[in-house]
Amino acid sequence: MIQKVLIANRGEIALRIVRACRELGIKTLAVYSEADVQSLHVQLADEAICIGGPKSSDSYLRADRIISAAEIADVDAIHPGYGFLSENAKFAEQCESCNIKFIGPKSKSIKMMGDKAVAKDTVRKAGVPTVPGSDGPVDSENEAVRTARKIGYPVIIKAVAGGGGRGMRIAHNDVSFAKEYHVARNEAEKAFGNGAVYIEKYIEKPRHIEFQILADSHGKVIHLGERDCSVQRRHQKLIEESPSPFLTSSLRKTMGKAAVKAAEAASYENAGTIEFLVDAKGNFYFIEMNTRIQVEHPVTEEVTGIDLIKQQIRIANGEKLEFDQGDIQFNRHAIECRINAEDPARNFIPSPGVIDLYYAPGGPGIRVDSHAYSGYAIPPYYDSMIGKLIAYGPDRKTALGRMYRALSEYYIRGIKTTIPLHKAIMSDPVFIEGKATTAYMEEFMARTPTDLFS
Asked: Per DSSP, what are the bridge partners of residue 155?
């Protein structure tokens, strides 16, 4: 049984894991960089060990130091959170070889679904619709151009080992394709150490909809409904909600079954997310699987009442899921806004620095997941997200009203944040009507005065 967990992450997700473990009676070990010595998860964990310098490459990406800390502190398991080493198959394999439970899928599944070309082939064989594209990586420009012509423009070039919008480029003709192909390869090489890319048909103005999966080690796989993640900037999600205002009950049922099929095809265990693009006609296509907990998992938790972090730990413990697909109820609507330390009026430039005043909203239907506090210094070395604001209610209208009210009560002084941007979106008719596609942010920014975000 798991009695002590090392949390191989930082920020709000590390704090979230500390809290879940404490409720389960499990001890926690925080590992941290020199820049995170004042972070809340370090203060609230039962034990803490510094593993290196401020840069991720000197700390949170150092598998050897994390494993050493685990052995020194005699932990039973490691929870990787999201980002950093959470989808690193080699790290999961190292944990397994050291007899430390990796709170996530097996290394084999991470490797399979982490290679997007292999993942696509795997789910296609299971009968899950996929976006038309190359059969695998395209190794030369000539081969790539031939493939793009065969698929039909526009196409999107994607890094095989990619994520977060890096190594991803769109081309509308042969001329632009030649340029974007090489840019995508260079970005992929720098970001992931792997310059391989593949090509897919570019679905214009789709919805980005993902299904939350839970799978135990006894063969049971279920889904916990969908999250609509269409509001994105440069392929980075800004707002997520559940249920999607676009899906019909029939389409939700069909996509849910497809998501379960995809997870079963990967022999998946633990929590994961199957991601789809859905066009205006309701055709849906698998694009990838995230083999970890997602940033936006609180949306699903508030809709279903199921604690996903606790479920991850129980599954890693070898326990069976206590519920079947028919037991899952979707009784609420929930919306999440990612609060980033960025200035949306200046092209989202990062805004690290000291928070002079931090006051989080409360009241009915509001949840705040954040590691920030008054006097906290936001370091410049990591992702700019400092918190997540979740509003929920019996219906979408109630959730929207609560979100706008909570954003109006959220005070962070000393740095710039995306709070004013989110307030403007919550007042926008297109978003209120549930018509946002992946093109929404670009269109919204083009028609909205930036002084609203100052």
From this structure: 171, 201
